[in-house]
Amino acid sequence: MATFGIDLGTTHSCIAYVDESTRPVIAKSAIGEDTTPSVVYFERPGVALVGTAAKNSALLAPHLVAQLVKRDMGRSGVEFTYHRERYTPEKISALVLRELARAAEENTGLPVRDVVITVPAYFGIAEREATRRAGEIAGLNVLDVLAEPVAAALHHHAVDETPGTRHVLVYDLGGGTFDTTVIRVSGDDVQVVCTDGDGELGGADWDQRIVEHLLSTFRDAHPNLDPSADDLAVQEFTDRAEEVKKALSATMSRNVALRFGGAAVNVRFTRELLEELTADLLDRTAAITERIVETARRKGVDRFDEVLLAGGMTRMPVVAAALQARFGLSPRLSEPDLAVAKGAALFALIRQAKSTRGAARQLGITEADAAAMAKKRVSTVVPRAFGVKAVDPRDPLALTDPMRARQMVAHLLQANTRLPADTGPYPFQTAIDNQRMVEIEVWEQAGPTPSEELADNTKIGHGMLTGIPARPAGCRIEVTFAMSETGELTVHAKELETGNDVRFELNIGGADRGTIAKARTDIAGHSVSG
Ligand code: ADP
Ligand code: MG
């Protein structure tokens, strides 16, 4: 029984397993490639294509093609309609996952059932849960969802067993997202120190810059023709752009042949020009990197032993060069677009080795390897701050007219706290006289940096503390947050005079079994091919 790791990427996905000698191996796609485009083409009712075939169809029928859905994972209310049927981001992701599993089974002969799926480190609980649901809708048993940089580091650590404690900076620039994470690797312990990123910055933005240049070059040569008004032409130019971008990672210049409206233009593209057109995009990644280096410094990390590049975009030589020039870091480039899936496969094996008796036999590995795997610990941090809604005690109205006083989010659990975490009791008070119950509203940080403004946070759940004795305002209440290793949040609120309390768990955005089963049936009818 092999365990699989899946990198469910914004633009490309990848699946890996661990062989008998505990080496992670990529399971190839239906067409023999290491990665599969995370694209679904809803050809006709009940028939969906996934992967390269779907990506190619984007040219002909963009309105029937779903892509970049990872950006909408966990957003409530987001749905797409194809052939009058509605699809959530989870359902579309489930189609991608099902195809990955199908191709992997076909190519390895191993059944794909137990999996670990990776997510960006800055994903909040709702996004993680949506990812888990996508796996379940696809009929997989999701052992865990794991942060991508941790997976990359785990793979890296497995291939490089330098002893001692090391700090690793992971710089991951993919097709649609950028994230950067600091990780501490110490013996068998792999721990996230802090994480930061931008969910709307990636290879597609580079492609866009190239397209703009191609379009304007074309218009300069043929002022009476405007390919930018033609969807098909734009799509074709976009494909050319991605091709030339990739080619320029290996070569210094490339000719691009453009055809439109009976005219043809040959554009000579150089690596230098590409770097010039996209310098500000790279600068944005550098600014975020600077921010995380600063966060890490505040947490006592003042040097990095290793810089790991992940994501297909880091194959561009300018990335490593920029990190070297700005931060004096010498990044290591090792299978940037495969490391996450391989690390996830290793993590799946670690999980199995820990939790299963007779794991070695079941997993088909040696007893010694199973024992070594079971010893590994991977801990992670709270991706974002969590808190409760409260009346701002600094607002003078809090005393005279609390109903009209400013409301804020008081964060109890700070971003980047190590998991499992327990905040200990935080003191609050009732706001009005004779208040017999308190609604405990739990809010999660929504933006990249913590803020107490309600608008910068999302409400993710609530509980009711009842049985408070009739007293003037100021009745003392304590609220405690505890978050498990896998991110489940338990909230405990207690009124101190009577000891009455309420405890509730947040299964945020958690669809019930029935909903998942229904979604699975919905997509089961789809014949899917890579
Ligand atoms: P994600 O995880 O976000 O889906 P990947 O890590 O698979 O993304 O990276 C995909 C991005 O990397 C795409 O924008 C793709 O064009 C780009 N890419 C892939 N190979 C290369 C290369 N050799 N040079 C430059 N960019 C590349
Ligand atoms: Mg990725």
Automatic annotation (TrEMBL):
Pfam families: HSP70. CDD domains: ASKHA_NBD_HSP70_DnaK_HscA_HscC. It comes from the Bacteria. Gene3D superfamilies: 3.30.420.40, Actin, Chain A, domain 4 (3.90.640.10), Substrate Binding Domain Of DNAk, Chain A, domain 1 (2.60.34.10). The keyword Nucleotide-binding applies. InterPro entries: ATPase_NBD (IPR043129), Heat_shock_70_CS (IPR018181), HSP70_peptide-bd_sf (IPR029047), Hsp_70_fam (IPR013126). Keywords: ATP-binding, Chaperone, Nucleotide-binding, Phosphoprotein, Stress response. PROSITE patterns: HSP70_1, HSP70_2, HSP70_3. Belongs to the heat shock protein 70 family. This is Hsp70 family protein. The lineage of its organism: Bacteria, Bacillati, Actinomycetota, Actinomycetes, Pseudonocardiales.
